[in-house]
Amino acid sequence: MRLTILSCALVLAACSRPEPPPTDQPPEPQAESHTELRDAIQQPLDKARAVEQTVEDAAEKQREEIDAQTGGVSVAPVN
Predict the structure, then answer these.
(1) What is the mean pLDDT of each run of 10 residues along the chain (79 residues)?
(2) DSSP one-letter code for 25
(3) Count of other CB atoms within 10 angstroms of residue 2
(4) pTM of the model
(5) Which residue from 39, 57, 58, 37 is spatially nearest to 47, judged by alpha carbons?
(6) Are 55 and 63 in contact (CB under 8 A)?
């Protein structure tokens, strides 16, 4: 009987919660290791922003040319 109680006590002691990690040390940042993924996402966005600016500049130049040819009469844009 004592052996059974001792065995149960050992099994219960082994089932206790693990100790939490010390909180005085902050976790090390892991963002630096994922720069390849971030760059893969950011690169097409940067490219699109550059193209957008080029398109806006071309549209402004076209508007100026139209204004110059029509003598400054503004023409409503067609959508």
Answers:
(1) 82 74 71 76 92 93 91 64
(2) S
(3) 6
(4) 0.39
(5) 39
(6) no
